[in-house]
């Protein structure tokens, strides 16, 4: 049951209304934006609930059980609670920067979904610099973390913001190098091309089979990029009392929180597209395969969070620069050799 | 070393005046003069047969007529203990600090100063420790101290 | 650390205040930092000061025992025990055999519960959120046993002068044996999650080194001292109660760092389980309490009785003038000396290491503030 024909039919219907090509394009893009935004919001709510249930079961307890069947309405209850909280701004905070930090985080997390292929033909805009665009946009969140840390006028927040900036910048390098391996083999940065390049072998010609090291490096760097344990120093509760978002309350805090989950979904979606074959797969519709693979990756990230302790900030940086970057270079050389001689 | 050996060894080798309290406990109990406190501490810390290097407890007692500071020291290597105390004047209690010998005496002496009012010489940091910074109601652990809000329990 | 000559840098004063998730209890630490590195640490205590020593001077000996429970509520059984030992030494009271065995069983169960809490909280502070719940699951079993015996889960008022308050119910012994069968495989589980974990080792090895001379200077005792190679355990070297009838080892490690303190506590839990097994086997039938009237008086004298608490030496210096109430009681806990040593240990470490050191030294505030 492919979804792409439905969208094409809707677009054609819109054309017959007769508003002209540009206006139709604008309206259809706006509608797509609303649909993607709606899907992601629902997905973020779902992920929050799922994480809490999953954490509960790892820790031999149940997690939320009271609101709705097995607590499915828990996130909605939390959202309602957060909306009706008072919006406190510290007296000595930098008001403009304080206001814009969560906005930027929120916008940049969602803006990356322009190029994510949700299924066969289900991509908002197939830019030919697809993966580069995703990496560039997700890097914007670093600025907003620094803004949040600075504007809160709080030493803990400042420490958290600085640490997160250092961490994110350090882990960009191995992530990009791992991605570069895939781009080298595919010959194009467009997400659709990358997915189509993995459609041989009945849909199982996945890049992970050929570049397992690249996949590992990408996963570790992605965990660090999304500030999750074992790399969650910027929001380490026990040391920094929630780090850079300590002074935020109410809806602004909700934005940081949701943006973190949307970011995690983005990185899982990119991992699926690059290494796990995207929406390729035999029997089920393509978007179902995409969802299964992405949610599987999300599960892996969640398992990391609830089992490992966290690294200290200098060990984190040491690991990035002394271990991951050399390995990423080795991976790149290996991929280059294989692509040239074995003719992948 | 047993109690008798300890008593014998210390009284022979220490040059100051010591009194011995007879208790029915298996540890010897000495009374040391206030001005010989430092020498006595140095002696029992350094002597190779005693090696009393753990200061386990340092506290003060207000007996109504005088103050006493009580020291409980223990030896890790020889696994024996001694106790000793110093008698202090009631109106102006002062004692030397033994921090140079046992660093653990730091907070114990601070607490003794704060709660009993015993001045400790040569202590680098005699400041408020357990009580709030703006405490002005005297020295609580003294026997004659009545707090402003204290309600005595009915007698059983 | 390279000093930047042209850049003006300032020392950051960070207040790890009384409300903080990882200072155990209410302790305020004023940290002077140069970037991430701590140059000075000043603990400010007194937030939990309840004037126990002054209160006790106005209570009879039996009324003091619930107060001594709160002296260190994580190991409340052992605090009661220390106080009762001091009182009994003054009056030369002989307590029945069964009471001695019950005291040992309760004390060792409390030791295991306290170590479980410490390990769980150490893992929680370092970011491993799951072992905390696993250790608390086992601690619930112990607290169930305590609730069965005396009705309370945290402050027991069970060990009284002259014995224990009441005999154990018949379902205690099978449940206790079941717990002893479970605890060793569970400790193996914790070892699997944490001991070989490279991140755990990276966070804990070489962090918070307490050299042997510092152990002597600051009179650090308990598992923190035994992780620095100082082999001193009051149960073996200064025996009290009936510990000479049991066969157990004292685990000593030589790494002097947080990792070995963690391992020392794990090993002590296993030894405590051994002691409880032997005590359950050897326990005779009989009375559990010597009758002590309300007009209980001790002989005049002074005594310093000490027990091996899970945090070190817990000493009670009791001075009695022959009346119904203690003349002066001074209670001393192991965490006092540990917190005294923290500023020296922590110089030059980072904040994350301070959290690891604080958690591994197992500092509990009520002992310090009394």
Q: Judging by the overall fold, what is the CATH architecture of chain B?
A: 2-Layer Sandwich
Beta-strand percent range of chain B: 25-35%
> How many extended strands of chain C?
8
Low-confidence stretches of chain B: none
Task: Explain the layout of strands and helices.
The complex is a heterotrimer of chains A (344), B (156) and C (370).
Chain A: H1 4-17, H2 21-58, H3 74-83, H4 95-111, H5 130-151, H6 155-186, H7 191-196, H8 200-203, H9 207-210, H10 212-225, H11 237-240, H12 251-275, H13 286-307, H14 313-342
Helix pairs in contact in A: 2-12, 2-13, 4-5, 4-12, 5-6, 6-10, 6-14, 10-12, 10-14, 12-13
Chain B: H1 3-13, E1 18-21, E2 29-32, H2 37-46, E3 54-62, E4 67-74, E5 81-88, E6 94-96, H3 105-116, E7 119-121
Parallel strand pairs in B: 2-5, 6-7
Antiparallel strand pairs in B: 1-2, 3-4, 4-5
Chain C: E1 12-16, E2 28-34, E3 37-44, H1 52-56, H2 61-69, H3 76-91, H4 97-125, H5 129-150, E4 159-160, E5 163-164, H6 172-195, H7 198-204, H8 212-218, H9 223-226, H10 234-237, H11 258-282, E6 301-309, E7 312-320, E8 328-332, H12 334-346, H13 351-360, H14 365-369
Antiparallel strand pairs in C: 1-2, 2-3, 4-5, 6-7, 7-8
Helix pairs in contact in C: 2-3, 3-4, 4-5, 4-11, 4-13, 5-6, 6-11, 12-13
Characterise the protein shown here.
The complex is a heterotrimer of chains A (344), B (156) and C (370). Chain A is 70% helix and 0% strand. Chain A is mainly alpha-helical. Chain A has one domain (87-342). The model of chain A has no long low-confidence stretch (mean pLDDT 85). The mean pLDDT of chain B is 83. Chain B has helices at residues 3-13, 37-46, 105-116, and strands at residues 18-21, 29-32, 54-62, 67-74, 81-88, 94-96, 119-121. Chain C has one domain (12-369): Orthogonal Bundle (Cytochrome-c3 Hydrogenase, chain B). Chain C is globular and about 80 Å long. With 370 residues, chain C is an alpha+beta fold. In chain C, strands 1-2-3 form a 3-stranded antiparallel sheet. In chain C, strands 6-7-8 form a 3-stranded antiparallel sheet. Chain C has a two-stranded antiparallel sheet with strand order 4-5. Classes of the chains: A mainly alpha (344), B alpha/beta (156), C alpha+beta (370). The interface between A and C is medium-sized, with 29 and 29 residues.
